[in-house]
Structures are given as structure tokens and as C-alpha cells.
Amino acid sequence: MSTVLGRRLGSELLHLREALGLRQSYAAEALSASVAKVAKMENGLVPMRDPDIRALCSAYGVTDTSAVDRLCKLASIDRDRRKAKGWWRNRLWEGPMGEYVAMESIATHVRSLQVCIIPGLLQTPDYVRALFHGQQVTDVDGRAVTDAEPDLVVDIRRRRQHRLEEENPLALHAIVWEAAFHQMVGGPDVMREQLGHMIDMATRPNVRLQVIPFASGARGCPASAFNILTFDRTDAVDVVYADSINSSFWAENETDGRAYSDHFRQLSTASLDDQHSIRLIEQLRKDM
Asked: Whole-prediction pTM value?
């Protein structure tokens, strides 16, 4: 089975080979392996060992040790992802949700941009149920699903959110457009509880919350909602997940990942700082 990280690693090795005009048989000879194995590696279907990666890089003339080390790091994270046997197994419907939760479970940092709804890692149970009954409940944070029960969706959210409270917690930087706080999901009582929960969570050292105010104008217009997952302290192996009504998208290469990271940084600059974001949420909560 292919994985997001496996496909990214395989794609990078494929591009290195094709840039030199080499056939898969050349890579197979460098590995003393079959062409079928090379094809599986390049399609992200199998975990890759560091010796194989280093052998291919040598065969392709890659002399930059940092570039080789980055590919080995990516392979290591992918192996961890494949070995993970978390709570989500046998509990999630097929599709992006299972892959996303598995990736989030080994991530160190999540950057979440949301336009119309509260980020899933910060949603209260009543908010999730209101989304579900409004047929807007989502597999991650934005795409509707039909083959789940409310209690299952609430439990998935709760288990994901537990990572924010662990001994070595997941770091979350959430940027939310002001519109999400005006949308009366579940009515005023549900929204007051939801906004109060966000204010409480923002006091945690591993949670950063920013609001894009309406007053930010054109520079604060988010293109779409997405999540960026980081697996170490550099952005070299970031992957991006975005979803829509009936499809999902993984930005699996470094160029696309950098574009999303740049957009996130730009919107962070256009957003209110942490203190003023909390003040705005507090005021909106009082006005409900």
C-alpha cells in the first residue's frame, strides 16, 4: 500500500533518475534488485531502507550529503508511519481520514488554516454534533462524510485532541478567519461554549491561535482551508492536506509544500497577534 510520505520519497527518487535519462533497469542494477522492486519504490508502495536510498543517490551522482540525509529522514518517518498501530485502525471509514489521522499521530507540529469552521483539534463535542446534523461534519476539518455516526465522529475528534495534552504534546498553530466565529453552528449556546473552549486552549504553551479579522482587507483573504503537518523541526518534510466537497488533496512535494507554508506565513502576518485574537474572540462571545 502506498503512503503519502512513501509517494513523496518515491517521486523524488524518480525525478533524480529521469533527470539523467536513466531506465529503471539501471536503478535495479545499482541495488542488485529487480525492476519490479524499483517500480514499487518509486510509487511509494514499499518502505525504503537507508542503504538503498544511499545507493541510488550515489548511482544518480547526488553528492550533497544534506540532500541524501533529508531523503533518509523522510524514509525513516515513512517507516514509522507504516508501523504505527494506533487507535484509529478498524475505527475509521476508508479514505483520507485514516491516512490523515495516522500522519497527525506522528507529526510534531500542525499548522491549520480554517475559513468557515473551527479547526477540528479545537472543536467541542456539541459543535461537532451540530456540524454532523447540519450535514457539514467532516473527515478531517472540511469535507462532508455520510457513512459515520455522530458518536464516532465525536470520539475521533476527542482522540485527536488528546495529542495536545500529552507529555510531549503536538504543537498547534491555528489561523481562523473571523467568519468562522460568526457562523452560528448549533446556535448561540453551542458557539459560546466553543469560543470559551478556544480561549482556554489558547493559554496552553503548545497552542497558538490567530484570527484573520474582516478589517484585514485583501491581504487577509485566505485562498482555502488546509493543514500543514511537520514531522521534525525543519520544513523539509512538510506535507499539506486540503479537502473540498468530494475530494481531497495531498501536496506531496517540497515545492507545493513551500507554497502553502509561504501562504500560511503571509496570513499569519495579516492576522491579529495572539493577545488581540483572544480579545476579539472574548468580545464576540459576550455579544452572542
From this structure: 0.84
